[in-house]
Amino acid sequence: MTTLDAAQLDAWLARLGIAAPPSPTLPALDAVLAAHLASIPFENVDPLLRRPVRIDLAAVFDKLVTRRRGGYCFELNTLLSAGLGALGYEVTPLAARVRWGVPDHVTTMTSHMLLRVEVAHRSYLVDVGFGGPTPFRAMPLSEPADDGFPYRLVPSPVPASASAFHSYDLQARGDAGWIPVYRFDLTPQPPIDFEARNWYVSTHPDSVFLQRLMAARTDDGTRVTLANGELAERAPDGSVRRTHLPHADAVVQALSERFGIVLDDALRQGLRAALPDLLAPATASAGS
């Protein structure tokens, strides 16, 4: 596993607002996870604007730490994996099939990267790279989460779990009950397999990352997400507050102010050119 060197580790921790390298304990893991979700947002500006996305550690570090951008799962969890490895955690990359917003009968590809992290001889799910609801602390794989925690892991349905490894469904609490987020098993994933998945989601015409602007960050347990001009704030109790952003300037402002994404002039111009077409359907729908 590739890890951050000493200088990179210091810069990454500074980006997270953590003063010194912590010991590899569960409380420290939860603190790093919360800081990562709050400080480095999920966003897909590059593929939306048809810019290449590299997921080697050097490129990811430059984008997310040096240039203070965000990224998506392959970038965010690559950085987290390298940082946790440098802190002394044992980390195994995994892959998941997204189920959020997907009908039960539709099969999805393993397009999402997440992490298995070992702490004191126990395994935990850790993920900072999902653009929707995301657990804001590590989730144990071998025991249930606290009753009040708005996420849970349940065994996948038998037809969907044909694997040599245990298969899990991550679910989020919603107004009407538990909602599937993604499905995964414990098969370790080599880096080369993520290269092919990244190429698909960042370049294929059918990829949602080329069709919709998305951003997300967690603020004190509230998951704030953006889909084109629709801003949603999902509280820990599952309730959701929604705000419509009516024009491109409002969206660009939200990316900077609500999500903390540093946008240079070229990115701002590209977004202002792309957003009117993306916002048009929502505008028409809101007016009908």
How would you describe the overall organization of this protein?
The chain is an alpha+beta fold and 288 residues long. It is built from 8 helices and 12 strands. Strands 5-4-3-2-8-7-6 form a 7-stranded antiparallel β-sheet. Strand 7 (167-174) and strand 8 form a beta hairpin. Helix 4 (57-66) crosses helix 5 (73-87) and helix 7 (248-257) crosses helix 8 (265-287). Residues 283-288 have low confidence and may be disordered. One of its GO terms (molecular function) is arylamine N-acetyltransferase activity. InterPro entries: Arylamine_N-AcTrfase, Papain-like_cys_pep_sf.
What is shown here, in short?
The chain has about 290 residues and is of the alpha+beta class. The protein has helices spanning about 5-15, 25-40, 45-50, 55-65, 75-85, 190-205, 250-255, 265-285; strands at about 40-45, 90-100, 110-120, 120-125, 140, 150-155, 165-175, 175-185, 215-220, 220-225, 230-235, 240-245.
